[in-house]
Structures are given as C-alpha cells and as structure tokens.
C-alpha cells in the first residue's frame, strides 16, 4: 500500500461552519440523531446513563478545535470527559509536508 494523506472538509457539528481536518485525528462526539445530543447527556445538558438504543443510533460528528476549546469549561463543570483541543489542521499540515512521518 502506498502512503498517502487524506483530509476532509465538513461542517463542525456545534457551530455548523465548514472546517478542514484529518479524518483519522479529528475530535468527534457521538451524537444521537433522534435527540441531537450525545447519548450520555440528557435534555438539561447534564450527564445521564446512555441507553443501548441511543448508543446504537449515535454517529460520530466532527468538532472543530475552536468549539472544543469553547465547550470544555462547561464539560469540566459537568464532570464530562474533556474534548481534545489539538488543532487537526496542524496534524494535517505535518502529514502534507512529510507523508512518510
Ligand atoms: Zn465548531
């Protein structure tokens, strides 16, 4: 298999603006399409025990680095796992510069 670089452009799930990212390293949240929320968050935005059905329905949605930084204080206050704040474009730029790294 030859080495290569893949990148994607899609709307950030939170702010809906397009951003470019490395699909293998982008931060994402699993979102239940029926509720528009992560399966482990209730309608009040509080942590909740996820149902198996909600987990099965949920799909990965990309989150841009700016939104990760914006929502982490609220996630920390709620005791939820923090989103990685790394800039996926930095990783993409490194791969484009040296795809053999
Ligand atoms: Zn965003």
Features:
single chain, about 100 residues, alpha+beta, two-stranded antiparallel ribbon, two-stranded antiparallel sheet, 4 strands, binds zinc ion
Compute the number of strand runs: 4
Mean pLDDT: 85
Counting helices, strands and paired strands, the structural category is: alpha+beta
Alpha-carbon distance between the two ends: 15 Å
Number of domains: 1
Q: What compounds sit in this structure? A: zinc ion
User: Counting H and I runs of at least 4 residues, what is the number of helices?
Assistant: 3
Runs with pLDDT <50, length 5+? none
Percent of sequence in beta strands: 15-25%
Radius of gyration based on Cα positions: 15 Å
> Helical residue percent?
25-40%
Helix and strand element order: EEEHEHH
Query: How would a crystallographer describe the biggest sheet?
Result: 2 strands, antiparallel
Strand adjacency order, main sheet: 1-2
Form type: elongated
Descriptive account of the structure:
- The chain has one domain (8-82).
- The protein is built from three helices and four strands; from the N terminus they run βββαβαα.
- It has helices spanning 52-57, 65-78, 88-97; strands at 8-11, 18-21, 28-31, 59-62.
- Strands 1-2 form a two-stranded antiparallel sheet. It has a two-stranded antiparallel sheet with strand order 3-4.
- The chain is elongated.
- The protein starts with 7 loop residues before the first strand and ends with a helix.
- The model has no long low-confidence stretch (mean pLDDT 85).
